[in-house]
Amino acid sequence: xxxxxxxxxxxxxxxxxxxxxxxxxxxxxxxxxxxxxxxxxxxxxxxxxxxxxxxxxxxxxxxxxxxxxxxxxxxxxxxxxxxxxxxxxxxxxxxxxxxxxxxxxxxxxxxxxxxxxxxxxxxxxxxxxxxxxxxxxxxxxxxxxxxxxxxxxxxxxxxxxxxxxxxxxxxxxxxxxxxxxxxxxxxxxxxxxxxxxxxxxxxxxxxxxxxxxxxxxxxxxxxxxxxxxxxxxxxxxxxxxxxxxxx
Length: 247
Prior knowledge:
This protein has helices spanning about 1-30, 40-80, 95-105, 115-125, 130-175, 180-235, 240-245. It is mainly alpha-helical. The chain folds into two domains: about 1-110, no CATH class; about 130-240. α5 (about 130-175) runs antiparallel to α6. The protein is rod-shaped.
């Protein structure tokens, strides 16, 4: 804001100089050093000066109005980009005390932002960044649940396979003492156990194949964590965005 006010003050000085030159031009054209003028001629000179000043002032004021509009347009666009709502009360523009305060404000040093900056920062944080963070948090939670379930299934399958394999390995050692009938029963059990292990192995292969999905989910989760970290960093820097808008 300081730079903008300095710019328009500079334009004001330039315009005053232009008006002074315009008056001098009229004086040089209309008035000679040794001439005597009637009242009508004096009125004509004054009117000519007035017309020149009015024309130049109208042009410069219109240009200045458009420049102010362009500046405000940039401010509002930046604010909208950060989900900041700017509300202006036109009535304050005619507040004599506020104008006097602005007149006496020094813009050679940074303006203290205080609570105004905090309010602006909070508004910025309540916008798109928070929406993105909330969405990513939900995605992360969902991915973590899927990872936990898949990991649990893999652990249970591996444990079951290990237990069955241990039983199968231990069975032949007890076969000689079981007798003929016991041996047949044991053989039947071994056959069933082998079939069960085969089925379990196929199931495990399927689960291990699904572990590619597990790795994919882990990669997605890592990516979500990185995005969350970046967004939280942006939120932490939201104050600087507020300063850019305010200044």
